[in-house]
């Protein structure tokens, strides 16, 4: 059986990299949440979750539904 050390200490270089990257990661998460909470994005998710049969029952194709959403969302 091989023995593997569990070294949880990080070097100063790794700590500095984490310190520098943390604000950029936070900004990235903020942009993602901003985009996901956009009404247009939510409408696209709703259209994407509809089946082709549901869209056909409304007399629409997926492309037509998306075009209508962009046309009426001003």
What's the quick description here?
The protein is 72% helix and 0% strand. By secondary structure, it is mostly helical.
Textual characterization of the structure:
72% of the residues lie in helices and 0% in strands. It has 74 residues and is mostly helical.
What is the radius of gyration? Answer: 23 Å
Number of H/I helices: 4
Structural class: mainly alpha
Question: How far is it from the N-terminal to the C-terminal residue, by CA?
Answer: 65 Å
Low-confidence stretches: none
Query: What is the percent of helical residues?
Result: over 70%
Highlighted features:
74 residues, mainly alpha, 4 helices
Task: Provide the fold topology.
Layout: H1 12-36, H2 39-49, H3 52-57, H4 62-72
């Amino acid at each position: 059986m091989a023995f593997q050390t569990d070294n949880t200490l990080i070097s100063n270089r790794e700590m500095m990299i984490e310190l520098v990257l943390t604000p950029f990661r936070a900004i990235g998460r903020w942009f993602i949440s901003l985009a996901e909470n956009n009404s247009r994005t939510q409408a696209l998710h709703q259209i994407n979750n509809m089946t082709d049969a549901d869209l056909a029952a409304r007399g629409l194709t997926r492309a037509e539904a998306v075009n209508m959403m962009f046309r009426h969302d001003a």
